[in-house]
Amino acid sequence: DQIIIKNGRHPVIEQINFSEPFIPNDCYVDTGENRLLVITGPNWSGKSTYLRQIALITILAQIGSFVPADEAEIGIIDRVFTRIGASDDLTRGQSTFMMEMNETAQILHHSTPKSLVIIDELGRGTSTTDGKSIARAVLEFLYERKIKTLFSTHFHELTEIPIPIKNFHFLIKEEGKKLIFLRKLSEGGTDKSYGIHVAEMAGVPGSVVKRAFDLVDTVYNDEGLNGHVVKKTNQDEKNSILSNREEVPSQRKQKTVQTFLFKPKHNGTISVLEKEITEIDLESLT
Ligand SMILES: Nc1ncnc2c1ncn2[C@@H]1O[C@H](COP(=O)(O)OP(=O)(O)OP(=O)(O)O)[C@@H](O)[C@H]1O
Ligand SMILES: [Mg+2]
């Protein structure tokens, strides 16, 4: 029940990406201490590529094929489950988040300790708090069920949850203002995403990039303006909670009047209509 890969490569990316040499990476997964791998690292650093390469190598091994690696020892896997990317299918009533959760539900219902689960970021399509909470709950579930899982995320808090996960991250080198993506997997978690740097590299207008950096430094940085803003918001919240509480006694003073839709008759008899209504099975109404 192990997946051991030495210097594994992505069979497609290494053939088509000539702008940089393909950097191989190892993998060790089992059903014991190494069953839950959480992979963090900056945007564009190689997380998705790595997850897919492990899935592909595992599938190739199952069909008896050669695998793109120096060495590999891969046990029998009953299914490979993946939850990758963000897409929707509006014609089938699926929003992005709905689709993400449907796929997650499938994984949680059907995976076994013989399966390999690949989750490439989970909980991005909703509020950050809900997303993080769902992601953590899913990790805990998979851990308890002893399901071999590789899980990439930008929610850095997940690297510190109190279950024995194995943290890995992709290395990056900062040279002055320049970022060098080393594409090499290393042990331990990271708390940096370099999202704005990558936005700049992707050609987002300089003024927007500059504004984003300013916002990080001020509004969204605990040390900066944010501390102030948060305190203010908390205070506002407290005030509103207090004012709500203060309203309670005066509300209590009012006499509550409960109206009954089907008030029984004084003599206790029930009309035919009332009987029919009470016998309706609400669940089977269309
Ligand atoms: N091991 C590697 N060697 C060489 N190039 C790589 C390697 N891994 C990834 N790349 C290149 O880097 C690009 C970005 O990688 P990838 O999409 O896997 O990053 P990511 O960490 O998932 O980013 P994001 O957080 O934005 O999803 C790929 O399109 C690929 O061309
Ligand atoms: Mg990715």
Automatic annotation (TrEMBL):
Transmembrane segments: none annotated. Pfam families: MutS_V. Keywords: ATP-binding, DNA-binding, Nucleotide-binding. One of its GO terms (molecular function) is mismatched DNA binding. InterPro entries: DNA_mismatch_repair_MutS_C, MutS, P-loop_NTPase. The keyword DNA-binding applies. The keyword ATP-binding applies. GO terms for biological process: mismatch repair. Residues 115-131 form the DNA mismatch repair proteins mutS family domain. GO terms for cellular component: cytosol. PANTHER family: DNA MISMATCH REPAIR PROTEIN MSH1, MITOCHONDRIAL, DNA MISMATCH REPAIR PROTEIN MUTS FAMILY MEMBER. This is DNA mismatch repair proteins mutS family domain-containing protein.
